[in-house]
Amino acid sequence: MKTRTPTMNLCAVPLTSRSLGRAPDRRRSPWTASIVTGIVVLAAALHASSSQATIIASDSAANYSGSSFISTNGGTGFQLWTSSLTGGGGSYRGSTGLGSTTFGIYAGGGANNSFTAYRQFDNALTVSSTFSVDIGTTSIASGGSVGVLFFASGVERGALFFDGGSSFWQWNGGGGAIVTSIPFGSVNLDLARLSTNGYSLALAQGATTQTITGTFLSSGNPTSSAINEVGFFSSAQGGGENFGFDNLEIAAVPEPHTPLIVGAGACAMIPVFLRRRRRPNR
Fold this sequence. Notes:
This protein is mostly beta strands. The chain has 2 domains: about 1-50 and about 255-275; about 60-250, Jelly Rolls, CATH 2.60.120. It is about 15% helix and about 40% strand. It is built from 3 helices and 16 strands. The strands form 2 sheets. Strands 1, 2, 4, 5, 7, 12, 13, 14 and 16 form a 9-stranded antiparallel β-sheet that branches. Strands 3-6-15-8-9-10-11 form a 7-stranded antiparallel β-sheet, with no helix packed on it. Helix 1 (about 30-50) runs antiparallel to helix 2. The longest helix has 21 residues, at about 30-50. The protein is globular. About 30% of the residues are buried.
């Protein structure tokens, strides 16, 4: 697990006229400078604490050798790749509609052909965590589709998909399909868990971005909305076609830590304490 943490000196004491041995400016209250310093230091501490994401799971096709990835695990925070096949289809590592060396799957034309590659998470998505992946596809035959499925304890809770003959990607979080503004082509997908059942789906394609927020339908069981598995499927896509995906990642943005906040505020009060210690007796 990698944590990106900035180097900060929260207790850096600002130089003042008093600390330098010069006469203070009587026109300005010593509390004014301390309050301003406190606000600045606290804001910096909060920003540094809340904006640094912790990567808790990651994987990419570059971690593998050879042309196969099913039943292996080249990443961290995920379990082995698994799959299901109906009719004709399969998986490979190589050139896809996403790029030159990615994970790829395919399924021949016809309603009886489909292939899905599954990946369980070591731990379910927690609130404030995000799953992200890059996806891309070649052509899709009429009646076929490709996409990404999200599961919670084996129950499908969401799906991003593209149907053959349509113009845009679609999303269904349990309340019916939503036609997005993202056209055919490669997409970066970010699915964030905002609350027990709340989510935010961000799609990016070049300069075009779209964010969809909603609530997973949980069938009366709130914990069932804790996504812990993803699936990539190709159904009746057509001969010679494929669906690619790569750069799987789960990241969590931590809440500001109480000790950090308290420490920042205490350090900001140091100039006041120094002033009191140096005040002459009357």
